[in-house]
Protein 1
Amino acid sequence: MDPSDLAFAGAAEQARMLADGEITAPMLLEVYLERIERLDSDLRAYRVVRYDGAREEAEAAQQRLDAGERRPLLGVPVAIKDDADVAGEVTSYGTGAHGPAVNSDSEVVRRLRAAGAVIIGKTNVPELMIMPFTESLSYGATRNPWNLSRTPGGSSGGSAAAVAAGLAPLALGSDGGGSIRIPSTWCGVFGLKTQRHRISQEPHDDGWYGLSVYGPIARSVMDAALFLDATTAIPGPEGEFAAAAARAPGRLRIALSTKTPTPLPVRCGKPQLTALEQAGALLRDLGHDVVIRDPEYPPWAIYSNFLPRFLRGISDDADGQAHPQYLEPRTRNIAKMGSFFSDRRMAAVLAAESAASTRIQSIFDDVDVVVTPGTATGPSRIGAYHRRGGIATLLLVAQRVPYQQVWNLTGQPAAVVPWDFDGDGLPMSVQLVGRPYDEATLLSLAAQIEVARPWAHRRPPLS
């Protein structure tokens, strides 16, 4: 197989080829290392590439394959977002304020290694994962492989850019307010925000007071399902998510919604609205019962519940840095805002989550899945917010990405499915939101859409 075709084959196909002896783990790794050497100086998807460590892991994986061992990701390279610990590496959180290299893996990385994954490197993030664009004073700007003048999104921007450009077949992301779904949308790949507690965050538990979760960024639905089977911390049948991705979802009742969860006026772009209309038409053609219906979003929920958790979480993260004096001024200002939320206030915020979630989730009494636009507009230009303060930046970026944060508040799973391209030639998506703990239905439905409207063959100009 041509090296470029191999790089874009996806994790599931690569795992099969490795198991069948069609390729070797060291050969596969070198395909990605060569591509990183050639392309990542423009893209800046990685903060660090583990050349020596990954080569040792690939050799060890090949020995296990030669001995007949079979694991779901044995020999497959996986990129890790730089908010998860990899033994021997710094966890930078996108800042120069970080501490020394860590001695042990995060639980999610340990589980990926147990499934046979080769850890290729750590991907770039904005400082403390705050923004939906991946730029920092410490590590520069990560660029969108579809247009180098635009952001890939954030905060999992490096992970999404790496998967989109063929610099990794699969990547770990995290999502505290859209940080998997936003960059997956703008880079044209599949991203899944998992159910809260689906994947362990140990030793960084309860990120942003329960808003943040880990999840996969992948080229295909099956690739994401393999990742989820390898990392789930909630007991269930072995291989349940790969099985879900391989089966038809059955006839579902699906609600299309363009309503934004905040009372602030947000203008959703015509291409994004057209994508949702097209998704509704396709879902009807696939035999689903499609209705137009909006969740009941309490107008206060984002401001009184999500926002305090978001800001106080940032404040706690800033306080936890080894050298907080090196944080960017904008980050320090946002962290200061978060410091005004006392422990007593946070306890009250968390206690109020149940009532808000019950109201929002009441739509799932009647429907199986809610489908929304992936984002309201396309990605911003690199440096667009460079001279903006904390509040101004947050208000401006919120206009682009209004459909994500409410589902971090409720904690339930949501995925973005690549759709079409906007007028600037940049990818768009539609968002699928499932019932609590029901990633399986999202995977089944997303896989059905993938068969009807394939996307994994698309390659950006920088590839």
Protein 2
Amino acid sequence: MEGATALNKRKKILKPFIAFAIVTLFLTFFPLPYYISAPGSAMELNEIVKVEGGNKERGSFSLTTVRIGKATFVQYAWAKMNNYYEIYPESYIIPEGESEDDYSHRQLHMMENSKEQATVVAYTKAKKDIKIDYNGVYVMSLVAGMPAEKKLKVGDRLFSIDGQKMKSAEEFTNYLSKKKKGDIVTLKLERDEKIIEVKIPIAVFPKEKTGDGQDKVGLGIILVTDRKVTVNPPVEINTDKIGGPSAGLMFALEIYNQLIDEDLTKGYKIAGTGTIGYDGKVGRIGGIAQKIVAADKAGIEIFFAPNEQGKKRVDPTGKPILTNYQEALQTAKEIHSQMKIIPVDTFDEAVLYLQKLQPKD
């Protein structure tokens, strides 16, 4: 009897601990329908970008990252209590009809495209050998609820729009930007080794407006240009599982710096962010406040931020939307950072700033 009594006592003591362990595991690991983004890190690009025979640097160029992941109860609570942590509904990060694998694939593809754009910009600026072959424009994804969803499939290769041959996604986008709601366009495409034509109306994107309060219209296609870029000397950019397009500007600066005789770093630790176009234009990115925090922690001295031509925009409530540069300045002030925040609209502007920069002692 005494043994049974002792066993019962142990069971009574263990029950609260087991319950506590179960609750703790639930709060720690059960995923919520939210994503959390947080400051990431600054990664020196001379370890990632290798131009064959490339020149060395006294200082460094770095890309900056944002960490993002599915929220749990604990992580959600932590994000609520910490500055520069952002909470997003799942649908904001992963559109309806898209899986996490689809999202990851899209992010990695944007990174590959960003590296290609940066390579083209840098080699062109440095007047080095570069050859570009165009192999068509492909449908990478479709926007749910838009007209193209019923007419096109992922993987369709597009040849022309309204009888005009186009070799790049940019040409398609520029053409569509002149259209308005209700206009109908004719696309010629290849699918399953067959050539077909489809007619698709221009429509308003669901719940989306531009910065000036106007409805945004289009077909609902996300396109990618199938290019083959060949350069000499060769370059390798090893990004592993880093995704997204926001390192474009910094890739271009690192590649260019390895191609030329002058060292543009001049001994400084330089970071930045911004997409890069084939024309060298620098575009807006997300999470710049978090990237400023990451750069400051890494001891970065100069940070390039997209200026967006100083464009004034408002959200649907009429509240002004800060440009990347304005938000970067504000964040640097809030965290008492000594970094110099430099606004840029183009790759050439960033190069010119660095050319005029006095070398560090």
Protein 3
Amino acid sequence: MSVEQAPVQRADFDQVMVPNYAPAAFIPVRGQGSRVWDQAGRELIDFAGGIAVNVLGHAHPALVGALTEQASKLWHVSNVFTNEPALRLAHKLIDATFAERVFFCNSGAEANEAAFKLARRVAFDRFGTEKYEIIAALNSFHGRTLFTVNVGGQSKYSDGFGPKITGITHVPYNDLAALKAAVSDKTCAVVLEPIQGEGGVLPAELAYLQGARELCDANDALLVFDEVQTGMGRSGHLFAYQHYGVTPDILTSAKSLGGGFPIAAMLTTEALAKHLVVGTHGTTYGGNPLACAVAEAVIDVINTPHVLVGVNAKHEQFKARLQQIGTQYGIFSEVRGLGLLIGCVLSDAFKGRAKDVFNAAEKENLMVLQAGPDVVRFAPSLVVEEADINEGLDRFERAVKTLTQA
């Protein structure tokens, strides 16, 4: 017998939720493919993808099927026991990457927390107490736990929470000389996003990642790639490191891994993984059967030539139209990114107005993202249909036209 639910509205957020978010004025209630409907029945096209999460759009039948099938079998057993979906998913990730061992958890921050703890533990075991320094990039983003937010190179997120974790250095992104100057025999890890996501959708230069790999090898440090946003096909490869041909020691994945269901993974080698012996790290929910069953379905769909080739074709479709819009209305100075992680850098006349673009797009029934105040970000479904791309970009052009002529 169902219980009648009291209606809720956007105003309820301000009454019951901690005010650390400022969500849009409407509430999405249903999604199908790359379309979303709000409480009033308004239809929007989704180019935000839940911040690069909804890799197969909304209500994809393969994911719905995997979730409902598993839901009728087994939800949770903790890590006192293992489970079949987790083992199958681990095999699939290992078969598709450099990795030999997998650790499952629930979010990108947790995957990065595990990666940073592993890097420090390896250095501690191999070299002693003095080798613990982590070097990361300015404007990077690695999560919101106290450790990961300090490794992230944006002080606006890490200030005001007491003493900062020591042994973390930040250097300019894509500046190999600065990285070289920072690395020493105390460095245990260099942590980089192959494409800075929250920092403005800024791809690494190939020579920069190659140089980082060489510096780590020369200084007994580990190279960690945060692929929370770039992983699972978003770059046009299953992981962006494969685009560059530079292999890390540790890789983190989340967001698209579950296609909307919370799951994350840290991937590494057997030689490094053995340093996390029983009791050194853990998570109650990590690798639960529901999440792993969904992620299995995600990788089965995504890791195919058809989808990955399609990502690159869709990139060209987006880029050409966005460049045309940017030139015609003088709003963008650059369109950059890989695959279906695209950033439109606002021109000087519109600097700081990414939120205004977001709001204008919403008025035209389109969902987009920001990546800081100066970049409009697109992270749609990897299987977004051509008709949705065209219609969504038509809506975006109308939004830009309205904004630039205001």
